[in-house]
Amino acid sequence: MKLFVLKTALAGLMAATTLGVAPAFAEKTKFEFWYGLSGDLGDRVQDACKKFNDSQSDFEILCTSQNGYDTTLQNTIAAYRAKKQPAITQIYDAGTLDLMLSKAFIPAKQLMADNGYKIDWNNYFGGIANYYATAAGELQSFPFNSSTAMFYYNVSAFEKAGIDFKPDTWEHVEEAARKLKAAGFECPLGFNFDTWPLLEQFSAIHNQPLATKANGYEGLDTEVVFNKTKFVDHVKFFKKMQDEKLFVVKTKQLGMDIVPAFTSQTCQMIQTSVADHGTVGKTLPEGVKWDVAMLPVWKGTERKNSLVGGASLWVMAGRPAAEYKGAAAFLNFLAQPDMVQWWSTVTGYIPVTKTGFDAMKANGFYDKAPYKGRELAIASLTYTPTSENTRGIRLGSFTQIRKEVSTSLEAIFMQNADVQKELDQAAERSNAILRRFEKTYAGQKLN
Amino acid sequence: MEKRAVFKSWWLPIVFALPQLLLILCFFYWPVAAVVNWAFTLEPPFGGPAEFVGFANFQEAFADPFYWNSVVVSLIFAIVGPLFAISIGLVLAIAVDRQLPGSGFFRFLYILPYAIAGPAAGMAFRFILSPERGLAASLNAMWPDIWNPAKYGEHALALVIIIFIWKWSGYTFIFLLAGLQSVPRALGEAAAMDGAGPFRRAIDVQVPLLAPTLFFLLVTMMTEGFVGADTFGIVHAVTEGGPNHGTEVMVYRIVDEAFKGLNYSGASAQSIILIGLIMIFTFIQFRFVEKRVHYK
């Protein structure tokens, strides 16, 4: 028994040492890539890694899921502080500013130039690239899995209720909701307290600022202003609709979130990410007609482009030069049109480059049933060139600010709190968060 | 007189204790030192110049009304949860200790919930007790909003505490059953001969003799309720601190602040306050409750 234990321990030790020295005599340069996607989407990332490893013999990418966007950021920070950071890491939209200020990364342009790749940076859709670029337009990370919010509606239910118009304005949505209700549908529109469609996308397409200093792009001394914009009226409208039982709250705490509520045909309209397009198509029973549209606007509003969501790939500083060659090769590989199309097909995320999108359009990808409608996400993202209010949101500790807003929405819609008072409080607390963030990065400037 | 074995040399005992000391140093004192350091500075998450800010992080926490809300929520959680978990464990242990037919099976059954991870139990209960789809849905159909943890903070707090009790009753049960089995049978039998029923025997004989075990459970369970992994896990899986801060226990706030908000400094300051609170709590327990516990 003792001998056995000793043997195992020794074997373990041996394994550890051989693993440690392996890169020394292996021909391939190995480098790490951490990502936050999990489940089915995580498997697709693994497929992408495998495709890359099979496509060439100089590099080997080791891909590890950290099971969640926030844990990936967290683990990247911990690893960076311990000088064990991966070469590439996937950081979600809300973590962009933390990375930008970290000085712990290699800017996208510099990496590709250093390793001899000529990239046409204008090939990225402006609505996507600007979220990850400096105010001057310098792209810092590589847009990867990108999405935007869409409006999903059940066409079969619409037909049953005799609705012959599209839900393109909120006036139409209200009218549709009334007709659906009259036709016996209990939940015409389902919504939850996710701020991404309700606050962020709404503000962008209605050209409303979320914060001063161009939504934070022009300085850390930004302040949120969402309690003084059209967003307040929009929340009041939602509240009125809720009181009339036309819009219904659906959260997992109540038993069912909005996407299951839509796919189980409990609710007939929802706003959610285009990334759910695949799930909705697979889950709704055969024969049920449904469609997506761009998020509705208020009548008379000049529609602007919507914001990109999802995550981008950051190349971390402090790795050996050989690994950067591999990282650049991998990122270049991902940008090839056939890879773009493959990724978009298997996940539902949208292509991030114009050539990728054009190639897919030319292939007739968007004409067929399961993928039809996804092109509207691109249309929504590129509706207008980006402007101050629509290029993105660059606020420190943005995850916490989102939480403040969604908590106030919870108070408004679940506990009947006063709309203006709650939003004022959320804004005040968000500003306190922003001031602390500014103090943490004292003396740093956004370039 | 006990016979004691004493080490002759001074270094040998230290060598024996060294592995343990190293472990404690690495996994306790070092992190604590790091937390104290964070608590008094502001440092960017990726590293960089750490600015000393004195008590600013503490002041920020204390100035926040929702922080005090989380203290109250935590206190309720850490008092109500453990008291019920211990009481239920006690009743179950006394019942099983009577060794009626089927005791073995029930002993196994009662321990089982403890084997389930808190977040998993939370997930299950979120569905079972959800207001629109679960068991409560039919109740809500009759009396609207009689049970709605998504709407009322009190209901939500009750929900997470129920899950905590459900899981930890199994744990207190093991300890109390073991304690009961060391109570001399003769005492119970003598009381029975004098005409004491099972209820009277439990109150006058078994519970007093269980006092050390009960005290141990009180201290450990309250600490568990305050800072246990399950307290965070359950709240995280079930309510995410909502509705409107209704179930925001201190640990949830700390984890949220640190890992979602990347505000390590604020989270560290709150951790230190929490450690202090637990020390006060434990002190009170030893000072006032232990006096009434007789070990021999």
From TrEMBL, chain A:
Organism: Rhizobium straminoryzae
Similarity section: Belongs to the bacterial solute-binding protein 1 family.
Subunit composition and interactions: The complex is composed of two ATP-binding proteins (UgpC), two transmembrane proteins (UgpA and UgpE) and a solute-binding protein (UgpB).
Main location group: periplasm
Entry keywords, A to Z: Coiled coil, Periplasm, Signal, Transport
Compartments it resides in: Periplasm
Function comment: Part of the ABC transporter complex UgpBAEC involved in sn-glycerol-3-phosphate (G3P) import. Binds G3P.
Coiled-coil blocks: 409-436
Any Pfam family the entry gives: SBP_bac_8
Signal sequence, start to end: 1-26
A single Gene Ontology CC term: periplasmic space
Name of the protein in its database record: sn-glycerol-3-phosphate-binding periplasmic protein UgpB
Automatic annotation (TrEMBL), chain B:
Biological process per Gene Ontology, one example term: transmembrane transport
Transmembrane segments: 12-32, 71-96, 108-129, 156-180, 201-222, 269-289
Compartmental location: Cell inner membrane; Cell membrane
Keyword Transmembrane annotated: yes
UniProt entry keywords in alphabetical sequence: Cell inner membrane, Cell membrane, Membrane, Transmembrane, Transmembrane helix, Transport
Source domain of life: Bacteria
CDD domains referenced in this protein's UniProt entry, alphabetically: TM_PBP2
Matches recorded under Pfam families: BPD_transp_1
Domain ABC transmembrane type-1: 71-285
PROSITE patterns: ABC_TM1
Topology of this chain in the membrane: Multi-pass membrane protein
Signal as UniProt keyword: no
Major subcellular site: membrane
Record-level GO cellular component terms: plasma membrane
Known role: Part of the ABC transporter complex UgpBAEC involved in sn-glycerol-3-phosphate (G3P) import. Probably responsible for the translocation of the substrate across the membrane.
Known partners and oligomeric status: The complex is composed of two ATP-binding proteins (UgpC), two transmembrane proteins (UgpA and UgpE) and a solute-binding protein (UgpB).
Sequence similarity: Belongs to the binding-protein-dependent transport system permease family.
Protein name: sn-glycerol-3-phosphate transport system permease protein UgpA
